[in-house]
């Protein structure tokens, strides 16, 4: 996403119009999530993807038409097409793609968005992608840029801008991209306007506790998955950047104290994952006592089943209830038969991904139905 925004900014700075195609809604086994974009540049170059290759040709042609006409378009692609030979998603999914022309006159706020994304600062771009009925006020294609403090642009009315800004900031806090419906004057859940909220959030955090070989492998795979990775250990001789070159930061502190401090400072959210690799009661019990009281995405702890049973007994003694204890993934990771630190990191990462999307960890060949699990379905983005 950051590379796509950077390329947009370069073309925008040159003053030549180009097209952006964005996935705004998905159903069934769609290969890429909402917010994924493809650019078609002034020279005809295509950058990015909206379907992993299934409908790129059709979207490319539409993007060139939109660039020439200046009129945005919302198109649906999928196997539901009447003509079996028409363009469709061979994976069986359906996607709504919004295609728009981008130029300095139509999107003067792009520089602000690009600067925020490059600096790692949260920013949301809200676009009106569909209008129910005639559009005499020209709402289609209007946009509002929302930051934690302040907005720029407008969707057509002050009341609508205020309502959308409030909702967009909530999505920013959770790092979620969504399609929302409003009335012309900001009434929520009205069907007059369909707005796509594209969130450019700070990366989710992965906190790895325990400066061990497993932590080095976990830092590598965490960074690869897009997490901002912190390795923390109370022992300064082990907690060094040289031992963990692929971690974004290495902290020397007592794990429970560091986690509590980060939470109190507001640097922990519901996307944060915690991997406890110390398997030492004096470190992991106080740490897990803090972690399991926070609204984290995932909390896992390394250790044998005997270690796990002892850990649970100690955590019960701290006052943690069964509901909180049930959130603990321990022993950490999926059963892959892992032996090396790298294989173990893969098993932990697989469990984090399965936990996020509701996966079972079972071989796909033994399952039936949709491959891609999705977030709760929302209304289509009009058309």
Q: Could you explain the architecture of this structure?
A:
The strands form 3 sheets. Strands 13-12-11-14-15-16 form a 6-stranded parallel beta sheet, sandwiched between helices. The protein has a 5-stranded antiparallel beta sheet with strand order 3-2-1-5-4, sandwiched between helices. Strands 8-7-6-10-9 form a 5-stranded antiparallel beta sheet, sandwiched between helices. It has 3 domains: 1-107, no CATH class; 121-202, no CATH class; 205-363, NAD(P)-binding Rossmann-like Domain (Rossmann fold, 3-Layer(aba) Sandwich). The longest helix has 17 residues, at 158-174. Helix 1 packs antiparallel against helix 3 (110-118), helix 5 (213-224) packs across helix 10 (341-357) and helix 6 runs parallel beside helix 7 (281-291). Strand 7 and strand 8 (151-154) form a beta hairpin. The protein is elongated. The protein has helices at residues 2-14, 56-69, 110-118, 158-174, 213-224, 255-264, 281-291, 305-317, 322-325, 341-357, and strands spanning 18-27, 37-40, 46-48, 73-78, 94-102, 123-131, 143-146, 151-154, 178-182, 193-200, 205-209, 228-233, 249-252, 273-276, 298-301, 328-329. By secondary structure, it is of the alpha/beta class. The two termini are 25 Å apart. Residues 206-352 form the XdhC Rossmann domain.
Helix content: 25-40%
Text of the CATH class of the largest domain? Alpha Beta
Secondary-structure content class: alpha/beta
By DSSP (H or I, 4+ residues per run), the number of helices equals 10
The count of domains is 3
Q: Name the CATH architecture of the largest domain.
A: 3-Layer(aba) Sandwich
Mean pLDDT: 89
Q: What is the global morphology?
A: elongated
- How much strand content do the residues show? 15-25%
What is the makeup of the main sheet?
Answer: 6 strands, parallel
> What is the CA-CA span between the terminal residues?
25 Å
């Amino acid at each position: 996403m950051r590379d796509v925004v950077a390329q947009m900014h370069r073309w925008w700075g040159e003053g030549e119009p180009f097209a952006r195609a964005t996935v705004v809604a998905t159903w069934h086994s769609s290969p890429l999530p909402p917010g994924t974009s493809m650019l078609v540049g002034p020279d005809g170059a295509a950058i990015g993807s909206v379907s992993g290759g299934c409908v790129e040709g059709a979207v490319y042609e539409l993007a060139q038409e939109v660039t020439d006409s200046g009129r945005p378009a919302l198109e649906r692609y999928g196997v539901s097409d009447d003509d079996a030979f028409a363009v469709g998603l061979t994976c069986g999914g359906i996607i709504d793609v919004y295609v728009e022309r981008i130029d300095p006159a139509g999107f003067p706020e792009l520089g602000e968005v690009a600067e925020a994304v490059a600096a790692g600062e949260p920013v949301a771009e809200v676009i009106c992608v569909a209008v129910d009925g005639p559009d005499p006020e020209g709402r289609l294609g209007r946009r509002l840029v929302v930051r934690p403090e302040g907005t720029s642009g407008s969707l057509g009315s002050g009341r609508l801008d205020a309502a959308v800004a409030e909702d967009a900031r909530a999505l920013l806090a959770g790092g979620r991209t969504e399609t929302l419906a409003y009335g012309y004057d900001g009434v929520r859940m009205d069907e007059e306007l369909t707005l796509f909220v594209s969130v450019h959030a700070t990366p989710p955090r992965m906190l790895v506790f325990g400066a061990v070989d497993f932590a080095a492998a976990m830092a590598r795979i965490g960074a690869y998955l897009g997490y901002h990775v912190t390795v923390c250990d109370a022992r300064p001789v082990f907690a060094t950047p040289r031992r963990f070159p692929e971690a974004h930061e290495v902290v020397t502190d007592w794990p429970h104290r560091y986690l509590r401090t980060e939470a109190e400072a507001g640097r922990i959210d519901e996307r944060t994952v915690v991997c406890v690799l110390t398997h030492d009661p004096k470190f992991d019990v106080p740490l897990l006592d803090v972690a399991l009281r926070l609204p984290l995405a995932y909390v896992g702890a390394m250790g044998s089943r005997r270690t796990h049973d002892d850990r649970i007994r100690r955590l019960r003694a701290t006052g943690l209830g069964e509901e909180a204890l049930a959130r603990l993934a321990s022993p950490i990771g999926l059963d892959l038969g892992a032996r090396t630190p790298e294989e173990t990191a893969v098993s932990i990462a697989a469990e984090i991904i399965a936990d996020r999307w509701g996966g079972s960890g079972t071989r796909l060949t033994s399952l039936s139905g949709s491959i891609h699990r999705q977030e709760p379905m929302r209304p289509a983005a009009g058309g």
